[in-house]
Amino acid sequence: MARVLLPKNTLRIVVYVIMLILVIIAALLTRPFRKSDAGSARNIQSVITNFNRVYYDSMVWQMTRYLGVPTQQFPSDLWVIQEIITELKPDVIIETGTYHGGSTLYFADILDRVNEQGRVISVDIAPKIEKASAFATFRKRVDVIRGDSVSPEVISEIAQRVGSGTVLVTLDSLHTKEHVLKEMNLYSRFVTPGSYLIVQDTNINGHPVYPTFGPGPMEAMEEFLKSNRDFEVDRSREKYMLTAYPSGFLKKTR
Question: What's the predicted TM-score (pTM) here?
Answer without folding.
Answer: 0.84
